[in-house]
Amino acid sequence: MSRILIIEDETSIADLERDYLELSGFTVEIENDGKKGLERALQKDIDLLILDLMLPGENGFEICRIVREKKNIPIIMVSARKDDIDKIRGLGLGADDYMTKPFSPSELVARVKAHLARYERLLNINMQANDIIEIRGLKIDRTARRVWIDGVEKAFTTKEFDLLSYLAQNPDHVFTKDELFREIWDMDSIGEIATVTVHIKKIREKIEKNSAKPEYIETIWGVGYRFKR
Ligand code: CA
User: What is the Å distance from ligand 1's center to 8 Cα?
Assistant: First the structure.
């Protein structure tokens, strides 16, 4: 469950916020001092920050600025003064939300839930952003540089991976050995193209059920190779 830090010097308000959040199943900590609160907010296990503006030790503006610089967590700023809220917005400190005291605790809980859900969604999108090519049982994760065939991971050398990945990125394109050599080995050299043949053979041994009848990398006689879509 998400861990929420409340930095608030008014004990009665902090306690009220905590009680409501705990009722909703959150784990809640309170810091009454700005300096201590900032230190705590920067720890790894805090998932959301509820931050009062006027605090002893360090003010909420500065805390918000520093936390935003170092961590990607939702920050909800609260203040007793509407003017302050306008000021916070104007400063563009990177807070996710603003609330004017007094506010209803259930409104706070609703906003906390909404912001946590939004961050989780963003995190998931980022995690899915690996560059993955999937063609019939072959899966190539270009971000993690890993290859699976029918769900079983296969070990590839750097050049084998680069070559397979390049071919799979350009399906139905016929490449000559020369072109592949220049692309993958980054050398303008002739006479080394046998290297390409050797690597294609090794890749086929790993991904093809039958190297003599390749399903993925096809030999185009007299020309080169083509990755079948
Ligand atoms: Ca205060």
Answer: 6
Q: Is residue 44 predicted with pLDDT exceeding 90?
A: no
Please report, for the domain that includes residue 217, its CATH number: 1.10.10.10
pLDDT one-digit tens code per residue, 82-103: 787 777 776 777 889 999 988 8
DSSP line for 73-123: --EEEEES-HHHHHHHHHHT---SEEEESS--HHHHHHHHHHHHHHHHHHH
pTM above 0.85, yes or no: no
Distance from the CA of 57 to the center of ligand 1, in angstroms?
11
Give the position of tokens 């900032």. Answer: 38
Using the mean position of ligand 1's atoms as its centre, give its distance from the Cα of residue 145 in Å.
50
Q: How far is the CA of 53 from the centre of ligand 1 (A)?
A: 6
Indicate whether 65 and 120 sit together in one domain.
yes
